[in-house]
Write a structure and sequence with these properties.
4-stranded mixed sheet, 7 helices, about 30% helix, two-stranded antiparallel ribbon, elongated, about 15% strand, alpha+beta, single chain, 8 strands
Length: about 190
């Protein structure tokens, strides 16, 4: 009969840990893990380390507010598809907790497949809705970051402090346009 235990329990002298055979490398994730889970046979003390899958994210990842994100993605928000796509780009381009994206609008526009002027108009809408926050500049180039109410990198305590200094973003940007087309009446003259 095996029981599930964590690493501090395994470090006691009562149990022998099975080691890889000579020439066999220990899995990378097991070396990096802070806590290793294993099954221990109560009768024999035999330890079998549980296999671990590699972490799914490569590099940093960001916490995104699901409810606010869905509100902005809905047709009721009044955001155009292009405006929402730019907002999402800023969510995922964030690389530090309260840091701005240090790229020019021309560089961002090329990546998003739009003109710099169109991106400037979109940023103006997102800034007025407090979705994007202006955060520094070099010359005439202004830098923006996403509001911490929508997306944040960092601990819960850091996030709580970051949202204290900012008002939440608007989720109803403008009255949405009707989704159905109006048919024109043909002149019968």
């Amino acid at each position: 009969m095996f029981i599930l235990v964590s690493e501090p329990f395994l470090k006691s002298d009562r149990f022998t840990r099975s080691t890889p055979t000579p020439g066999e490398a220990e899995p990378q994730m097991a070396q990096e893990a802070a806590e290793v889970l294993a099954l221990v046979n109560r009768k024999t003390g035999e330890v079998k380390e549980l296999p671990r899958a590699p972490y799914a994210f490569d590099g940093q990842h960001i916490n995104v507010g699901i409810r606010k994100g869905r509100e902005l993605a809905s047709a009721d928000s009044g955001l155009t598809d292009r405006e929402f796509r730019v907002a999402v780009w800023y969510w995922f381009a964030t690389e530090e907790a309260l840091g701005a994206i240090r790229r020019t609008q021309a560089e961002i526009a090329v990546e998003l497949g739009m003109s710099a002027d169109a991106l400037g108009r979109v940023i103006k809408v997102l800034k007025s809705a407090r979705i994007l926050l202006e955060d520094g500049s070099v010359g005439r180039t202004k830098f923006y970051r996403c509001t911490p109410h929508l997306a944040f990198i960092g601990s819960g305590f850091e996030h709580r402090e970051a949202v204290k200094t900012r008002n939440p973003p608007e989720t109803n940007i403008r009255t949405p346009k009707p989704r159905t087309r109006q048919r024109r009446k043909k002149d019968e003259s």
